[in-house]
Amino acid sequence: MSEKHNLKVEKTATYYTLGNVKTAKTIWFVLHGYGMLAKYFIKKFEPILNEETCIIAPDGLSKFYTQGFYGRVGATWMTKEDREEEIEDYINYLNKLYEVNIAENNNENVKINLLGFSQGGATVSRWAASKKITFNNLILWASVFPDDMTFDFLNNNNTFVLLGDKDEFATDKNVQTQKEVLAKSGVDFTLIKFEGAHDIPKKIILEQTQLNSWN
């Protein structure tokens, strides 16, 4: 019978930015969904970009062809295979990304927003729960918290869950279950429903950024 071994290696990760991280008063870390790439995902945040804002979009560590053996490439944050190791790897990666970029910022009171879309919502939640970083707002877009989470890390932050009314994944049952879990855990959160599907419409991200003072 074969025996499993793990080997830690150095890996080059890719991320994209909009704006100047050195002078930004608000920094967004935005995590894409399954099968997406950061260089395209970051474009969804162009409407909220201004001279005081920086958007940082990392790629998931694993890339693959989304259809067959060639063509469009996407990335994923994790799979069920070697789940715990993959979670540890992406948390270490995101911590390093945070450390490098925050060190470059010149504003002592910079506002930090963490946003995860779809699969990126579970990723950003686990990252925030590691308690290795500070942030102001946690935004789950077209996503919910993982089932295995504890929520004490949210005591001093603002939490938002945004779901489209035509999102095929946001069933009434799923939404109700999430509300019950958060209520039971004592999490104070804002649930926002918008007109749209499983996406981040540019009009909605701009509107909600203004309404909730995310910038």
Automatic annotation (TrEMBL):
Tell me one Pfam family matched here.
Abhydrolase_2
Segments forming domain Phospholipase/carboxylesterase/thioesterase: 22-203
Q: Where is the signal peptide?
A: none
Return the InterPro entries for the record.
Answer: AB_hydrolase_fold (IPR029058), PLipase/COase/thioEstase (IPR003140)
Query: What would you give as a GO molecular function for this chain, any one?
Result: hydrolase activity
The protein depicted here goes by the name Phospholipase/carboxylesterase/thioesterase domain-containing protein
